[in-house]
Amino acid sequence: MNRCGRCTAEEKHEKTGDKEEDEMTRTITVKGVGSATARPDYVIISMTLDAQDMKYEKAMELAAVHLEQLKASLAGTGFDKEAIKTTNFNVRTDYQNEQDGNGKWKNVFNGYIVSHSLKIIFDFDAKRLSRTLGAIADCVAKPVLSIAFTVKDPTGIKEELLKSAAENARRKAETIINNGTAMREKPSYTATHNRSASLAR
To answer: What pTM, to 2 d.p., does this model score?
Structure first.
């Protein structure tokens, strides 16, 4: 699996016109595109536990039970309780549409839903990931989960992206010059990169 990113670079250079053009300065902006790859070495598993009951107290109690069940399941794969981090916690009411005896639809209270979002983060290891997913799947609380693969230290890949984009912009600027755009000074340029990246498998 490779992690790919894209970034942009801008290379600006000035063209000094003839005296007949009142020595006006023209600026040409060249955008470069760069790419870099890195093998993901970090895993983030996000999970959501939902508990529902007609009574608020019961819903909260059920949510606490679900959390302990999840922690117990993950403990078997080497995660302690502190490794499971809460990212969001909320309680909301739930309603469903029902038709009365006169054929009219109305919203009927269907209880309280306690939603608990959590995550665990660890260094990528295929065997550990497989054991972790198996433990989550076997958990009676049945959490909904998603998996993200990323780079633990993105500094290196960001630098590669920026260098690649700057070089691409420089080549484009030189192509413009070589195709007949006269320059009295060497072009100066600045480069910026896009922090977003995607994972290619």
So the answer is: 0.64
